[in-house]
Design brief:
By secondary structure, the chain is α+β, with helices and mostly antiparallel strands. It is about 55% helix and about 15% strand. The chain has a single domain (about 45-250), classed as Butyryl-CoA Dehydrogenase, subunit A, domain 3 (Up-down Bundle). Strand 5 (about 140) and strand 6 form a beta hairpin. It is found in: Membrane.
Length: about 260
C-alpha cells in the first residue's frame, strides 16, 4: 500500500506540482507549475505563434525565390557600342549568369544602355565554376572575384540552414504545446536574416570588384529584383524573430509598458 501511495505522490508532483504544496511548499509548487505550463498552451497563444510563423515563412519564401534566380546584378553595354543592329547585356546571380543579345530597334530610344532583359532576344546561360573547378568567370572581358562570390553564396546557404532549424523549432513548439522552443527559433530566424543581408553586401562588393577588373568595355550596372527579394526576406526574417521573442516572454509587454491604463480600466 505504501509503495503505491509513494508512486502516486511522485507522479502528481512531476506532472502538476500540487502534492505537498502549502504555505511552505513554494519550491515544489513552482517546479510543478512550470512543468504544467509547458504542457499547456492557450489557443490564443498558439494562434499568435502561427501568425508569427507565417511572417517567417514569407521571409523563407522570398529568400528561396531570390537565391534561385539569376537577376542579382544586371550589366549592360551601351546600346550602340557594337555599331550594329544588336547589343549585349548580362545578368547573373549566385549560381549562374546569362548573356543576352537584343535588337537595338526594340530598345526605348531614350535609353542609352542595352536592355531591359525582358525584351526578346538570344540568351546564353552557364553555371559558374566557382564550386567545381574553382575558375573565375569572365563577363565582357571582366573577371569575377571568386572568393567574394563564394562568400556570398555560402552566407546565403547558411541562412537557409538556420531557417530550416527555426522552422523545426516552431513545429515542435506547436506539436508539443510548449514555449521553450520559441527562443531558439527566434535566434535562428534573426541570425538568418542578418546573414541574408550580409550576403547582399558581399555580393555587391563582388560586383564592384568585377567592374574594376577591366575598363575596356563601358558597362551600366545595377542590382536587380532578386536582390530586392532577398533584402525584403532579411527584414521579414528579423521581424519574425522579434515576434517570437515577444511571444516567449513570461509576461505581456503591453501590460508591462502600460500598467496605469490597465489599472484604470
Amino acid at each position: 500500500m505504501s509503495l503505491w501511495s509513494n508512486f502516486f505522490v511522485q507522479d502528481e508532483e512531476g506532472r502538476i506540482g500540487v502534492a505537498g504544496v502549502g504555505q511552505g511548499g513554494g519550491v515544489a509548487g513552482m517546479k510543478g507549475g512550470r512543468g504544467h505550463r509547458r504542457h499547456k498552451m492557450s489557443d490564443s497563444q498558439e494562434g499568435k505563434i502561427k501568425l508569427a510563423f507565417f511572417v517567417a515563412i514569407i521571409g523563407v519564401t522570398l529568400t528561396v525565390l531570390g537565391m534561385g534566380t539569376e537577376f542579382w546584378a544586371v550589366l549592360a553595354q551601351p546600346k550602340n557600342f557594337s555599331g550594329n543592329q544588336t547589343c549585349q547585356m548580362a545578368h547573373y546571380g549566385l549560381w549562374k549568369g546569362c548573356i543576352r543579345t537584343l535588337w537595338v530597334a526594340d530598345i526605348d530610344p531614350e535609353r542609352t544602355s542595352c536592355g531591359p532583359a525582358e525584351l526578346p532576344g538570344d540568351s546564353n546561360c552557364t553555371y559558374f565554376k566557382f564550386f567545381t573547378s574553382g575558375e573565375n568567370a569572365v563577363i565582357f572581358k571582366k573577371t569575377t572575384n571568386k572568393n567574394l562570390n563564394l562568400a556570398a553564396a555560402i552566407l546565403a546557404l547558411l541562412s537557409l540552414v538556420l531557417m530550416v532549424t527555426g522552422s523545426v523549432c516552431i513545429a515542435m513548439a506547436l506539436s508539443k504545446g510548449v514555449q521553450f522552443f520559441l527562443k531558439p527559433a527566434a535566434f535562428c530566424f534573426i541570425l538568418s536574416g542578418v546573414l541574408v543581408l550580409i550576403s547582399i553586401l558581399v555580393f555587391h562588393q563582388s560586383v564592384l570588384a568585377l567592374l574594376s577588373s577591366d575598363h575596356s568595355v563601358p558597362l551600366h550596372h545595377e542590382l536587380s529584383w532578386s536582390v530586392a527579394c532577398v533584402g525584403g526576406a532579411g527584414a521579414t526574417l528579423i521581424f519574425g524573430g522579434l515576434l517570437f521573442i515577444l511571444l516567449s516572454l513570461p509576461f505581456s509587454p503591453w501590460q508591462k509598458c502600460l500598467p496605469h491604463k490597465n489599472s484604470a480600466t
